[in-house]
Specification:
This is Methyltransferase type 11 domain-containing protein. The chain has a single domain, classed as Rossmann fold (3-Layer(aba) Sandwich). The chain contains 10 helices and 6 strands; from the N terminus they run αααααββαβαβαβααβ. Helix 2 crosses helix 3 and helix 2 runs parallel beside helix 9.
Length: 260
């Protein structure tokens, strides 16, 4: 594993990603105006979706390579039964599922621009018959019910870098807890506030620009949102690797929903 970057490198790292995303937003804006004239300026959500999909599709291989140096591959392989893959984005985790342990996977992704990339990866890894992409959020319970995803219906929910990007992580986690069967698994690798005071200042300074153009928040209490969603059998198993200078310090683990 390569050495971790020092304080200065860690705290200035967001600039490159933000600058790249700014360029992609500009390209998406120009394309929107080209298609729709002046009305294209008003298509804010469509411009954001297009730029976000471009950003994460282009950087997908880099994210996969980095995650290969972490616990992520083994976390994904722990998914079993009927699985909800939260916010799959470009489908970075698709190749990591243990197909022999999976009954079916529902990918819940609100950005429709990721569909083509996900379809290509499902074809490549022979998962088309076991994976269905649903274009919505976990909060869209009416849509999920229409697909048969109801309270207590899921064996596993996989959540890899998603809570940072949803509108309301507290309500999302409460929905996740409801959807899991008693004894079901919530598998996660997330980031939030640092425990290092200097790093929290850097997170707060970067967050307005980072959240606007990259689409995720650096200053969320992911650990609290997860633990407060409902009763878990093994909250003490959550791991927090020591990353004092990282603006994306991780929490990770496999929580089991407590039976009534």
């Amino acid at each position: 594993m390569p050495p971790k970057p020092g304080r200065f490198a860690s705290w200035t790292r967001p600039f490159g990603m933000i600058w790249f995303s700014l360029r992609l937003h500009w390209e998406a804006l120009k394309e929107s105006v080209r298609r729709e004239g002046l009305a294209g300026f008003l298509r804010v959500s469509q411009i954001r979706d297009a730029a976000s999909a471009s950003l994460f599709n282009i950087t997908s291989s880099g994210f996969i390579a980095y995650e290969d140096t972490t616990i992520v591959p083994s976390l994904v392989q722990a998914a079993s039964g009927v699985v909800l893959d939260m916010g799959p984005g470009p489908g970075n985790q698709i190749h990591r599922f243990d197909a022999s342990a999976i009954e079916y996977i529902y990918g819940v992704e609100p950005n429709p621009r990721f569909k083509d990339g996900i379809d290509a990866k499902l074809e490549e890894h022979n998962l088309k018959d076991k994976y269905k992409l649903i274009v919505c959020g976990v909060e869209d319970s009416d849509v999920l019910r229409g697909e048969g995803i109801t309270e207590g219906s899921l064996d596993t929910v996989l959540c890899i870098q998603v809570l940072c990007a949803v509108d309301d992580p507290k309500s999302v986690m409460k929905e996740v807890w409801k959807l899991l069967k008693p004894g079901g698994k919530f598998i996660f690798w997330e980031h939030g506030w640092s425990r290092n005071r200097g790093t929290t200042v850097a997170q707060a300074l970067w967050n307005p620009t980072w959240s606007t153009f990259v689409g995720c928040h650096l200053t969320r209490n992911a650990l609290g949102d997860i633990l407060n969603a409902g009763e878990w059998e093994n909250p003490g198993d959550i791991e927090e690797p020591e990353e004092p200078f990282s603006l994306l310090p991780r929490i990770q683990g496999v929580l089991v929903k407590k039976a009534n």
